[in-house]
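stuck on this chain:
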Amino acid sequence: MNQIDFSGLIDKDRIAAQAGRDTGIGERVFIVTGAAQGFGYGITYALAAMGARVCMADLNIQGVRDAAKLLSKDYMTDVIGVGVDVSDEDSVREMTLETVKHFGGLDVLISCAGILKAGELPDISKEDFERITSVNYTGFFLCAKYASIVMKEQRAIDPERMHDIIEINSKSGLEGSRANFAYAGSKFGGIGLVQSFALELAPFGVKVNAICPGNYLDGPLWNDPEKGLFKQYLDAGKVPGAKTLADVRAFYEAKVPLGRGCRVDDVVRAVKYIIEQRYETGQALPVTGGQVMMR
């Protein structure tokens, strides 16, 4: 399959005007996948508030289109909503193409799309395992593949220009997770991709890093009454002695030295740090309240 040449779509005047200086977040173009809810939506909201131009991408097309209209109006910036299945190469290619056509380039990819199904070895089917892997692991590969093509072409215009690829990983990418092996395995693999992509793309000024949030206990991934992790973990017997959803929440809060779950603003601060620094690549940054500490 031939790669797309994005060079004819890149706004060379924008690149030239920004040459030789550090650009703020408000001057950059972003793709955020998984942007219809959770961390993806929260990150996009924060970026729009800083004036950034953002492509919100998600399998939930109507959700990101509605959110994009709202954020564009509220913050007087340019936000678009694009449908994407990150596990499908044609879909990822089209997402990237639509972004570059609309904005004239791409400066930062934030890969946030992910799925999870809890269960022990006998409970997870091969189909479940492959679906989780295709979104969390293969999806990151495909998004990085096409984003990096654009970033290399922009670097050719301005040899000092820096770009970022950020995977929103998980604390489950730093340590194993009982009855959650499919998700944890995909996230361990994601950090392997981060380190490998960082080595490959460093000569082109592309920093590749992961952010590893702790449990977002207030988000829909945990709180959905039918499919949320509180319900899944209660049903799977993952929390010994738990009889209610509140028991499961209390169990996970007690694991965190700082006494609470991770919040969107914690992750946004990590995103800002990774983008603004110029000398870290191939890293996995824990944002876990001390639950997981680097050695």
The first strand starts at residue 29 and ends at 33. The radius of gyration is 19 Å. The chain has a mean pLDDT of 96. The chain has two domains: 25-214+263-287, 217-261.
